[in-house]
Amino acid sequence: MNDPLQDTSSHQRPGVFARLRSSFLTGIVVILPVSLTLWLFWTVLGWFDGFVLPLVPERFKPEQYIGINLRGVGIIFFLVFTILVGWLAKGLIGRSLIRYVESVVDRMPFIRSVYSGAKQIAETVFAQQDRSFDQACMVEYPRKGIWAVGFISTEAKGEIDSRAQTGSRLLSVFVPTTPNPTSGFLLFFPEEDVIPLDMSIEDAAKLVISAGLVYPPHKGVTPLPDQPESAPDHAAQ
Known about the structure:
alpha+beta, disordered C terminus, five-stranded antiparallel β-sheet
């Protein structure tokens, strides 16, 4: 027979301190993402202002007319300047000027290497006709039995593909580091050693940045219904 006093004590409501602690943790979960997002946005605006505004003539700065320094004006100047340069670069005069500048840069040994590398990266990342990554995947790295999340970049070409001793297609895979996915390793795997994932590239990036704490919803195979239990074998009794 159950003790009624014991049942009553087991269903007591949590104390005041426990409720305050639960509310505090809930508030942290709500406030932290919003605060971090606002802080990052505010910091980026300040970085643009500190980099762009010193290059803007004084007569074009808004504080000369309204008396206060508006944060974020630098990014507006940057966007307008970038759009103007892109519009000029599409024209005949702009293309001719770019070719002339590149011909001058080609005569400078060290600057030539820096410029060509930066240009290739910019064209790969920002070109509208190309994609940065094709698909998220899993590969065994740094050894067999240990799996890492990676991003399929392109199919290997040129000397890399011709010199690799593999009988199948060779894929270039970028394996990012945690929690900074901008650094990582460029690895080349045979196609059969690369396991494509159904999750999007954004979800895979969240998984890497969160160090495995944020998993995307998994759409697995629907499990089969439970099989009915077989009738007891009366003959065996």
